[in-house]
Amino acid sequence: MSNRAVCREASHAGSWYSASGSQLNAQLEGWLSQAQSTIRPARAIIAPHAGYTYCGACAAHAYKQVDPSITRRVFILGPSHHVPLSRCALSPADIYRTPLYDLRIDQKVYADLWKTGLFERMTLQTDEDEHSIEMHLPYTAKAMESHKDEFSIVPVLVGALSESKEQEYGKLLSKYLADPSNLFIISSDFCHWGQRFRYTYYDESQGEIYRSIEHLDKMGMGIIEQLDPMSFTNYLKKYRNTICGRHPIGVLLNAVAELRKSGLEMNFTFLNYAQSTGSGVQFSPPHLIPVERERDKG
């Protein structure tokens, strides 16, 4: 039996972002240099997963809040785009490759998560087809480069969870969120608008379509900032906003709600919002960046 490490290749490098380590590094440094470190250190961030041409500059506002000196483990929760999934799934890989350097999966945490019986195992093909987690790997590597040998990652593919399952996974992960050495990255674009996405909600009182989309998204952003999972669920039921990372966001909100029961307060603030426009009236997902941090330590 071979003990050789299983590696997930950087399958979207060369298309969704540069496959050249030096070019990618320069791009990330450029975007990060334009962002402000305002509420560092972040305990959790929400950042987009579109191609870097569209969202690289926006994502920098979130990653600028990461403090590599205290972060030892990075949880990355991304939605499943290609396979039906009603639970959460873990990767079969040991190593995630990036054009910058390889990232190591925390097998101890994976083993603990496996023991709960709540997780499925995705195939390597499913893992490499999916972009929602991969798009955060280069930024994670860049943000953590000063301590690159001192941290591990915990990638989790999140399925179309019911409200009760979001609560269950939130409760399970809350103990990890409570640890200041853990960072949570929630992978999500916001409104996907147009016939391609079967979503054409338009509030004409807001003016042009992009204004209506922005109003809808910022309404959701305000609700997320309240850190109340039920309010977010009700917003989604009412407006059906096509937030592709709504289930990872729901898991995070439920994890925060669980911590609040024990008196740990957390604050969530949106730092940036941007839209990416496709051809005609087709809108690609807008991108927004919230950052969450601990407010009180005791």
Task: Summarize the structure in words.
This is Protein MEMO1. InterPro entries: MEMO1_fam. The protein is globular. The protein is built from nine helices and eleven strands. Strands 7-4-8-3-9-2-11-10 form an eight-stranded mixed sheet, with helices on both faces. Strands 1-5-6 form a three-stranded mixed sheet. The chain has a single domain, classed as 3-Layer(aba) Sandwich (Protocatechuate 4,5-dioxygenase, Chain B). It is of the alpha/beta class and 298 residues long. Helices cover 36% and strands 20% of the residues. The longest helix is centred in the last third of the chain and has 17 residues, at 209-225.
Keywords:
20% strand; alpha/beta; disordered C terminus; Protocatechuate 4,5-dioxygenase, Chain B; eight-stranded mixed beta sheet; single chain; 298 residues; three-stranded mixed beta sheet
Total number of helices = 9
Straight-line distance between termini: 49 Å
Output the CATH class name.
Alpha Beta
DSSP summary, beta strand count: 11
**What is CATH's topology name?**
Protocatechuate 4,5-dioxygenase, Chain B
> What is the percentage of strand-forming residues?
15-25%
H/E series: EHEHEEEEHEHHEHEHHHEE
Sheet with most strands: strand arrangement: 7-4-8-3-9-2-11-10
Binned, the helix content reads 25-40%
What is the second-level CATH architecture?
3-Layer(aba) Sandwich
Helical/strand content category: alpha/beta
Shape: globular
Q: Point out poorly predicted stretches.
A: 278-298
Radius of gyration: 18 Å
| Average residue-wise pLDDT | 89
Query: How many domains would you count in the coordinates?
Result: 1
- What's the CATH H-level superfamily name? LigB-like
Largest sheet: 8 strands, mixed
